[in-house]
Amino acid sequence: MLLFPDLPAILSGTLLQLPAAPARVQHLLLDSRRVGQPAGSLFFALRGPQHNGHRYMPELYAKGVRLFIIEAEAEIPGGVAAFPEAGFLLVEDSLAALQALAAHHRQQFRGPVFGITGSNGKTIVKEWLAQLLSPDELVCKSPRSFNSQVGVPLSVWELNPTHTLGIFEAGISERGEMARLARVIQPTLGIFTTLGTAHDAGFSSPEEKVGEKLQLFASVDTLFYCLDQPLVHQAAQALLLPHRRFTWSRHHPHEANVAVTVLETLADRTLVRVVLDKPLPQEHTFTIPFADEPSVENALHCLAVLLWRQVAAAEIQRRLDRLQPVAMRLEMKQAINDCYVLDDTYNNDLAGLTLALDALARQPRRGRRTLILSDVLESGLPAAELYARVAALLPAHGVERLIGIGPEISQFQSAFALAAKAFFPDTEAFLDDFRPDHFQHETILVKGARRYGFERIVTAFQQKIHGTVLEVNLDALVHNLNYYRARLQPGTRLMVMVKAFAYGSGSYEVANLLQFHRADYLAVAYADEGVDLRQHGISLPIMVMNPSPDSFQKLRQYHLEPEIYSFERLRDYLRAAGEQPLPAIHLKLDTGMRRLGFAEEDLPELCQLLRKNAAHLRVASALTHLAGADEEQHNDFSRRQLAAFQRMTPLLEAALGYPILKHALNSAGIIRFPEAHFDMVRLGIGLYGVEASGQHPEALRPVSSLRTTISQIKTLAPGETVGYGRRGQATDYERRIATIAIGYADGYDRRFGNGGGQVVIRGHRAPIIGNVCMDMCMADVTSIPAARAGDPVTVFGEEMPLVTLATGIGTIPYELLTNVSERVKRVFFAE
Ligand SMILES: *Cc1c(COP(=O)(O)O)cnc(C)c1O
């Protein structure tokens, strides 16, 4: 048990203030948005280029957090004295303090601890090893891929005295990082997976990279690795004596502890024959339930550990048979009756549950939050204590209804103080009882250990979803957001355009993520779009670009700020504002787009009007829009627009007598004119993965992928045509044609017909043949003999860039994105 006054000795800091009430340190907290249980939470104020944890002190204090590790007293709003009940420890480096605390915690644990690193496969090897060893051990492991400077200490903090084994992964991207992780994990056993090319930028040579990574293993008793990677082998030999290395190999059978002598790929599995060198040479044959090379390699790492532990061969095979692919992502899916399902059906330990509940709590959607939860496994805690802890997590994360499935959770149902709860002994019993109308406008977290087969529950919630989906990768969206953020001049605010259903990606979900990541403003085209966001719990300021006079009441009711671009609109607004107060406005200035806005010659009249109505009208900002920010050839014109804007805005500010926000740049402009970021920029297409200035096409990640399936495959005799108008050209050879489930009513442009577009099936491109129909179209798969009905088809996404597709039919990515019809279901996922 650790008390706040114990911390200075462990973290060597200066105690500034003791908490008013003595408090045990139970939870480590880094993010003010993720306060689950304030009592016993210790907040570390971290500072980064985009972020300063000290600023969130008032918010944390208001939520009940009382224990703080800080780096800079001066950066706390109001100073330490403003928080009389809180304890403060001042340290030099909060991140180092977090790691030191975790290292101290690790030292209390006596059992063996695996450290896993390598360029690929860390998470899968960790998950599989935990699965394979779970019959013998109570394993504490890193949740998901928590392997960073921050993720590792949080993972290690989960160790408790009832665990018998720890398995933690470590990932680094530059020099000096591994030594810090090694001090936290203090592994007694190690696995090096593979040495790839990822993150090469941080190292001067591959040798340096291996050397850095192997620092994790300097004090292990045994390191497991594949001897076929010469660089790894050399570095391991230099680091550790032979008795501290346990190797496997496919190509050097006489040098390794485990020689893989046969490796034979069957349809969906792989047969391996191995010879183990000690104590006497023994030969065994195993079947690995995967056929792809990375999975086989990951499984071989695990197999080496099992052989080293002398698990009997028949038992090894039984455990291998149960290996499951590792689901690395939490998906949010649209479901029946305006419900959303957060699908997390892979495992269910306490750390994973807490993460999933965080994700649920971050959904500001109105409507009930429901949790469907299986028995919680491998906690190492007595069941009564375990379910008491789970029960405490639920109200802290806003869960109002619980459906517990499994014998153990059912036994402890009285631990849960919720009004709405139901329990079932198993998944079948729940499904037998399932009635869609019992679920309405809810956000439902489905969280179950693999063995409960909760994917059947997710399917039940998705009954009516048709085969075409737009997958939206929320991690990619955040990546793109951060790319632009990192390019902003210091202090520049960020407005994000979520008009047109967030460029087709789903406005509420995108807006929610932006709110979580603290964008400053959102913008929509019409008042109704803003109303919809407000009804889904979005509280950021919202600008409405095209407000009609009959929407002014809505603007007031939902606090939406209109863009005003003409005298006519301004007079309408002033009239309405004279009757009752209305939100602040944004003045659109026309500097050369010649579309909407006040021109330079309108300014005298405009200023006069503003001055006269100063009492009941507030101006939040002035904006202009560039006509040619995408293209270098228009740079001179763009600069003239920016200069005009800079002439006009001081006049407005002089008339108003107070400063307003000034903003001019869209995505392409942000990159092209860093000198003109002004007070705010307006990010649009870049967030969704298209770098419109064309200068850094590789910097962004594609956000949405449009996917459908093959409905049927037909073989066409020479001379036959396909579809309406008999357009699919007749040829003199036999062709295979796949009918795919997407048409122009889904937003698949008719110009893609007759060879205008291609789709990707089984990794190959297939041209569209014949006309695109309303709900389907046809692709020529003659050159893809493996194609089958039911196969997934990618229309755009990683394998088929939007820009390529758009250029092919003479349009722009904006049109393709926004055309995807709302009948296409959106699936949101994060890794
Ligand atoms: C849509 C829009 C943007 C964003 O443009 P992108 O090219 O998508 O970045 C910026 N400003 C205004 C006024 C817009 O209408």
Structure in words:
- This protein is of the alpha/beta class and 831 residues long.
- The protein has 5 domains: 4-96, 3-Layer(aba) Sandwich (Udp-n-acetylmuramoylalanyl-d-glutamate--2,6- Diaminopimelate Ligase, Chain: A, domain 1); 109-321, UDP-N-acetylmuramoyl-L-alanine:D-glutamate ligase, CATH 3.40.1190; 330-463, Protein-Tyrosine Phosphatase, Chain A; 472-697, Alanine racemase (TIM Barrel); 704-830, Lyase, Ornithine Decarboxylase, Chain A, domain 1 (Beta Barrel), CATH 2.40.37.
- It has 26 helices and 38 strands.
- The strands form 5 sheets. A 9-stranded mixed sheet has the order 9-10-8-11-12-13-14-15-16, sandwiched between helices. Strands 30-29-28-27-26-25-24-31 form an 8-stranded parallel sheet. A 6-stranded antiparallel β-barrel has the order 32-33-36-35-34-37.
- α21 links the parallel β27 and β28.
- α3 packs parallel to α6 (177-185), α7 (206-214) crosses α8 (230-239) and α22 (603-612) packs parallel to α23 (635-656).
- The longest helix has 22 residues, at 635-656.
- The two termini are 34 Å apart.
- The mean pLDDT is 92.
Helix count? 26
Give the biggest beta sheet.
9 strands, mixed
- Strand line-up in the sheet with most strands: 9-10-8-11-12-13-14-15-16
Radius of gyration: 30 Å
Strand content: 15-25%
CATH topology of the largest domain: TIM Barrel
CATH superfamily of the largest domain: Alanine racemase
Distance between the termini: 34 Å
CATH architecture call of the largest domain? Alpha-Beta Barrel
Structural class category: alpha/beta
3D shape: globular
Provide the CATH top-level class of the largest domain.
Alpha Beta
- Report low-confidence residues grouped into runs of 5 or more: none
Percentage of helical residues? Answer: 25-40%
Mean pLDDT value = 92
